[in-house]
Amino acid sequence: MKAIKYLLIGMLTTVVSAPAMAQEDHSAVINQITKVIKAKGANVESEVKNVVKANKKNADVLTAIGRAYLQVKDLDNAKKYADMAVARNKNFGDAYVLLGDIEVLNDDGGAASSWFQNAILFDPQNPEGYIRYAQVNSKASPANAIQTLEKLRQARPDYPVDLIAADIYQGAHNMDKAIEYYSKVDKSKMEAPQLVNLAMDYYLKGDFNKSLETSTFGNQKFPRNAALNRISFWDYTNLKDYDKAIQYAERLYTASDSAKITSKDHLHYGYVYLGKEDMANAIAKFQQAIDEGEEYPDDRLDAMKNMAQAYQKQGDIANAVAVYDRYLKAKPEITAADMGTLATMWQNHAKTLEGDAKKEAQLKADAVWGEIAEKFPSVAHVAYNNRARIAVSLDPESTEGLAKPFYEKVVELLANKTERAANENKYLVDAYHYLGAYYTIVANDKEQGNVYWNKILEINPDHKQAQIALGLIQPE
User: Which pTM does this prediction carry?
Assistant: First the structure.
């Protein structure tokens, strides 16, 4: 029932809807006594008594008094006046709805459903009974809930049933069904929260184009709505239209009502500047996401990772590595891919250097790959392959055979596997190739070299360099 209470709590504070049967307008009296009850003043009982005395035949006023008491969590008085309203007019559906709402707050879904069914039975033109019944049953039986709404469609063809169904599915966290029903509704008939729901559902499903179509429609209708501006900002970011993303980011940050800027907003702003190659602003936005995202650890981690990337693109390897080290220390579980990024960071930095500085960066990358091989045996062959490639760069003529022990480890790990993936065969061929060349040319041991050339042909019979080395074909 807690889920039902959560789903309905927003509905409990709504004003009583107009009943199907014509009645005298008592809205002024209802508004005034509602304010009195909610204010909880010293004379509330006497004022309520006076209103009841003057309106004892008016079920709408009695129901409104009961609902006002419900809003201040006085369930006894709420029920008292709901019962009085039913006694006055058994066909007044809003009174049954009030009795059902009381049972919602009492955590009695069965009793609530019964009262909502009474509302449907005695006041079939009033949509509130159908809606409340569908909401209460949306978790336990969504099909039954929607079936009830279809009955509402028959009773009131003019009523936006698809919109109500969409809202119910949204409250039940069924995005696919929510999208299905929202999509049946003319967007011009949706209010801002419903446009936000639809746009965000599409966003969460990764359909950024449809999300953007919905949010930008909403931007025209509700230009200062923070949520709609935010979704357009995020959608344009994901679609890599960075200039438009900045336009909507500024609308969110400076031209939205009641906008609470979040760490995820700063994070997306960082993505935009990273995409625009504006590293200084990217770093500043990622830092904001880190500073303001204590409650959102995933956003902070994402910001650190991207901030490191921005520093590297700036050529600032010291800060890149420092930030990435913070990322690794903050991450609950480090993966081989996480560490591989650090190794690649050093390798990419090495490409920008010469001499001893280049060698130092390569050795730092090698050390990380060594750690990966030790900590993650399932990808050790990848780590050893990378260590071998670094060794080849440090020993391009292979005179020292620096890559030999690493390629031998690749062979040790992969050669006897009964089933190898295509990339594993590639790693193995690379290892055989190096070892074949090393023994043939450097060690002057053609017999041992031929062992490796033949092993290549067992994997790839069309490997030209192996065929040439074995004298099977002539060089072109």
Answer: 0.79
